[in-house]
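Q: Predict the bound structure with protoporphyrin IX containing FE.
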Amino acid sequence: MDRFVKGFIIMSIVYLGLATILGILMLAHESLMPLKFVHSHLNLLGWVSMMIYGVGYHILPRFMGRLLYSPILGEVQFYLANVGIIGLIVFYTMNIYAPSGLYLSLTVASGVVEAISIFLFFYNMLRTLLPKVEQPH
Ligand code: HEM
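A: Predicted complex:
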């Protein structure tokens, strides 16, 4: 298993744990409800998406009997996806409790980094899956 594939799976489980703890805290303290965005994005960009990236990178090329188009892009995606989600939740939270143009801009910038990582997956996976298989004559 590639290092970045294992990384996606481990980080996905870490984000599941964090999102669940925050969900429980939100139930216990109404005052934490403004962090619903953090909870939902830890779950959906962290737990759900990263588990799908990890399992998808490992299994989808094998289903097609071919190699991943670019493991390097996969590795880059791993770092960008994690920098993006951590920036998103940290700066979003800071902007909730101490609103400022700086925190808002950093939240948006983190969202852009996360989006770039998503398009790296999009590109890498489609370059892997779409090319036609050469038929033996
Ligand atoms: C023990 C596990 C969990 C707990 C305690 C929990 C708790 C909560 C709470 C308290 C809210 C706010 C509800 C409200 O607006 O009144 C919420 C919202 C949300 N949760 Fe969770 N949650 C859990 C697991 C999950 C999982 C596994 C996912 C997705 C994979 C998820 C996705 C969401 C989403 C998308 C919202 C926002 C819903 C909306 O804005 O209407 N949660 N959760």
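A: The chain has one domain: 3-129.
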